[in-house]
Amino acid sequence: MPDVEAAVIGAGVGGIAAGCQLRRAGIDDFVILDRRSDFSGTWIANTYPGVALDVPSTSYEFTFAPNRWSRVFAPGDEVREYCQRVAREHGLYDRARFGTSVEREVWDDENGFWTLHLTGGETLTARYVLNATGFFLEPRSNSGIPDVERYTGKVMISAGWDHSYDYRGKRVAVIGTGASSMQIVPSIAPDVAQLDVYQRTATWCFPKPDFAFGRIGQRLMRSPRFHTLAYMANWYVYQALVVGAERIPKRAAMALITGLETVLRAAYSLYLKIQVTDREARRALVPKHGLMANMPTFGRGFLQTFSRENGTLLTTPIERFTETGIRTTDGVNRDYDMVVLATGFNVASDPEAFPVGAVTGRDGFDLGEFYRANGMQAYAGVTIPKLPNRWFLYGPYGWNGVTWVSMMESSALHAARVIAAARDQGTQVAEVTQRAHDVWHEMMTTSPFTQVAQEYLVERQFKQHHVRSYFFNDRGEAPILRPSRGFRDSLWDHSERFDPRQDYTFRAVTHSAAADSVASSNGASPEPVRAARE
User: Would the CA dihedral through 493, 494, 500, 502 be positive or negative?
Assistant: First the structure.
């Protein structure tokens, strides 16, 4: 018998959702593994100055746990406290094991369970595995800039801020203009002597309507009905956009998008004239790519930084690091006391983000090799044939158009329903059928919405403007957003409606195989997982 019935890899939002959905389904023999020291995932890693939500707070909560947010865009510590409170209230700390990383997952088909190889050489066996490591996997340490090891000043990574370092009065460089940079730059600008921001690609940066909730807002936060209405508003607004893209002919959709972006670019140029006094900086800050080619951001004070005496925007490419700073391709050396690497993450839309040998399924199936050879795909965005009893809480074409938190709930519900179906039938192994997977993938890739997305993102943005994006990969795929197929038959609530018995095969593990497994271990199985925190 395996050590636990289910193992959840990751204790962020996805891990919390998985634990709660497993408990709701009556599955209590599980462990949540995470390399960090507590629940909340990215909100432990990202504690840099100014860290906050870049989506409205009410869209970043579990449907079963509405929160009384203090602001429209809650700060990072408030989000972290919320995640940990939900985990505590649902008894997940009793099932958590922190400071543990999973290096490799190997399926044992005869005995019907996974062997997880952990750091330090330990192994843990689990009947079912739910991977909840999220979309942003690992920070890019230096974005390919040579000689970072030669630099003798302070290197600061956005996803691992060293709060013991005092940057006040120092010469600082920030590399990158993505979402993290938009928050870091205005937060440190008033305190540093010089702030140079290195921009490779301009980013759309819109005003952030952030404010603390007053008396009326706090009253709304106490109303479960208000939270339900806010969730439904997200659902219907996003779905209306996707359904519109599915119903309009591709040529008409692209003409409409082009026209809207022309108007938007003109309006944005006027907005920059109000925010930025430097003409050259204004010109450089206008994106060449379209609005949705990369994630647009909401910023408070980022653009105004380049009207400060100590704020400079630099667009000349970086050649390399020097011992004292950065050298650009025009031969100019600049010295810095601290360099902040806000250079993004490796993401789950790239086949290369899945290491070869990390996940081995039935008949020697290797997930990393499969994605490199065949591209990104997964039934319902959560599983794939030859990986029995295993689900990703975010997988290809997994974004159901609502919110990240509700998507994690939905994916975890899918896995919990399959496990419950296996239990009901007295079976232990569940695997999606090849036919169900292929039908789903065909539906994803041939959808009018996907075709519009690929035309817009790959053909027009990547090939014309050379912009890189989380929304597509080097194979020319756009495997993030899921089509809808209309309001009535929406694929976004697939996890609630599908019948596991139609799309999965179920089989029982023979008693002889299980007995042989116990006998062969001869008492040398890993120690039972203990609660990480009493």
Answer: positive
**467-479 residues labelled b (16+ CB within 10 A) or e (exposed):** bbbbbbbebebbb
Distance (Å, rounded) from C-alpha 423 to C-alpha 421?
Answer: 5
CB neighbours (10 Å) of residue 166? 10
Cβ partners under 8 Å of residue 201, min gap 6: 177, 287, 289, 294, 467, 468
- Where does the pLDDT of residue 300 fall: very low under 50, low under 70, confident under 90, or very high at 90 and above? confident
Q: At what angle do helices 13-24 and 404-424 cross, to 10 degrees?
A: 30
Which SS3 state, helix, strand or coil, does residue 371 take? helix
Query: In terms of Cα–Cα distance, which of 26, 24, 32 is closest to 6?
Result: 32
Work out whether the CA dihedral 315, 311, 160, 349 comes out positive or negative: negative
Which residue(s) pair with 174 in the sheet? Answer: 197, 340
Please give the structure tokens belonging to residue 5: 């019935």
pLDDT in tens, 332-377: 999 999 999 998 777 888 898 899 999 999 999 999 999 999 999 9
Q: 394: burial class by Cβ within 10 Å (0-12, 13-18, 19+)?
A: buried
Residues 6 or more apart whose CB falls under 8 angstroms from that of 405 comprise 13, 17, 59, 60, 61, 62
Alpha carbon of 125 to those of 105, 387, 483, 508: distances in Å? 9, 15, 36, 17
